[in-house]
Hints:
heterodimer; A: mainly beta; B: 12 strands
Amino acid sequence: xxxxxQTPKFRVLKTGQSMTLLCAQDMNHEYMYWYRQDPGMGLRxxxxxxxxxxxxxxxxxxxxxxxxxxxxxxxxGLESAAPSQTSVYFCASSRFTDTQYFGPGTRLTVL
Amino acid sequence: xxxxxxxxxxxxxxxxxxxxxxxxxxxxxYPSLFWYVQYPGEGLQLLLKATxxxxxxxxxxxxxxxxxETTSFHxxxxxxxxxxxxxxxxxxxxxxxxxxLTFGKGTLLTVNP
Lengths: 111, 113
């Protein structure tokens, strides 16, 4: 039982490049989330999903897209990366509105 | 809207000292309250939680009591260890069908031998 896993762990992009972050969970959770963590800001919700095939915007969705084609996976895409998107990205999942379980994070630097 | 305010760090203690990290909240309805811990280079782990007023959450020697009258959920430990060095986040979920976790900004704790 791996819990929540994230790929990749680190990535460096140039401004304007695109990439996809993958989150996978093996707990059969319905809800999945993407957060970003910036110094002094705590965690802020980017997008979330309440089930396979559904997605919705969180607090800071601009510049990101998501997809949930399979229940166990939640993808976060950056179509045209900007330096302001330099951050640590965390995925989480939960059984409906119960406790959220977090992945280890992806550290992204945009130059 | 919902909000969480926790004491700003960093907090530096000697081993075996007592710890209190203050957390107060503003929320609609009857929120559940959480403390998450983030060790260096890792993701967040649930440390403890409380789902209703006067509940006490506890884990690994840490405790926090849900105080509705003071809208607080302060984290306490009687004797900290070097291995407790981490960032601690207070968070709330407003409950019902609300999915959203609202986090405080985090408090960095460093424990010296």
